[in-house]
Amino acid sequence: MESKLPYRQNAMAIIDEVNPMDAFDPKLANVLIVDDQEYNISLLERILKRAGFRHIHSTMDPHEIQQLLSTIAPDIVLLDLHMPGMDGLEALKLIREQMGEEQYLPVLMLTADITPEAKQHGLQAGVNDFLTKPYDRTEVVLRMNNLLRTRHLHLQLQQHNNMLEARVRERTEELEQAKLEILQLLGRAAEYRDDMTGQHTQRVGKLSGLIAARLGFSDHRIQLIEMAAPLHDIGKIGISDEILLKPGRFEPEEFEYMKTHTKIGASILEGSAFAVLKLAGIIAESHHEKWDGSGYPRGLKAEEIPIEARIVALADFFDALTHERPYKKAWSPDEAISEVQRQRGIHFDPKLVDVMLQLFHLNEIPLRDEEAS
User: Fold this and answer.
1) pLDDT tens digits, residue range 47-98?
2) What 3-state class would DSSP assign to 202?
3) Do 7-165 and 192-372 have matching folds?
């Protein structure tokens, strides 16, 4: 069962799930020895086997390192500094390039050169520690154990970070889903006033997204429009049932009152810090503006009308025509698209009408309630 702890407590619980030192056994590590002298390799193998290490690999050719990194996945590399053809520092550069910055693979440099310059060059190249020839058996084991313990802690921390990132992604997805559902419910709250199916808002959102996609909008912008469009008529919450549910045509004063739902909607959504609600407010206020300037509430004309409001206006108009309302019967899709064509350049942006016609002829317009779900 999923934990109901607050997020911070959940995060701390994840960290406590695994003790970073649990199951740590350096003897199980994959060890890679790279040295051009067979005697040195044999000596190190004997030291490590006597100390209990079980997985020891070696090569006298530093050019094989990159392949061995992939095949044996070493936990530590014992790397000779002075080798013909490719010295230890060149080999170390290949290791770091292949492993990347995020992977911690300790490298123990083998050298008889104990000068400060040699150690400085090694540390600058990314050496983690040094083993000086001739080897002291105890020192070999202790230095390896220390580096392997650090690697183990790094891997545990990486695992914890991955788990935390997964939880963050999960919570983010949940919040996004909750936000979407809240927006849908707000849209339905208004729409149930005059559409008992509550699906009009979802169809308008879907159709608005299809139009935006045809216009070449980005995926993010399309998503915002689809989420904001269902709130276009949220201002109906402030309109009385006597007017909203009236069958037949409005009297002039009733229509003026009905027009206020655009301002009411904008007022409800005003002041939000969220992009989707800001856009919803713009759409709520302007989706009854007309291309020729005869719309309301401000009489905006042509491209003065925000493009998102123009899109939703067209989607809303077509869907309202093709579905029954208390004051009208449903039109057939052919009748509705003919009316859309007739309103090209009058009510609607000509470019959007052309896009709508393309969608209609491709049978991509949602016409039934189940298509909007």
Assistant:
1) 999 999 999 999 999 999 999 999 999 999 999 988 988 988 999 998 988 8
2) helix
3) no
Sign of the C-alpha dihedral, residues 237, 239, 242, 246? negative
Q: Which pLDDT band holds residue 16 (cuts at 50, 70, 90)?
A: very low
Average pLDDT over residues 124-131: 89
Q: Where in the chain are the domains?
A: 7-165, 192-372
Q: Which CATH class is domain 192-372?
A: mainly alpha
Model confidence at 12: pLDDT above 60: no
Fold of the domain built from segment(s) 7-165: Rossmann fold (3.40.50)
What Cα–Cα distance (Å) separates residue 204 from each residue in 153, 185, 265, 371? 54, 14, 16, 11
For 344-360, give the DSSP string. Answer: BTTTB-HHHHHHHHHHH
Alpha helices in 76-228 (DSSP H): 88-99, 116-125, 137-191, 200-214, 219-228
According to DSSP, the β-strands at 129-132 and 76-80 are unpaired
Q: Considering Cα of 345, then 351, then 352, then 354, what sign does the dihedral take?
A: positive
The closest of 343, 371, 373 to 357, measured between CA atoms, is 343
For tokens 């040195």, name the residue.
40
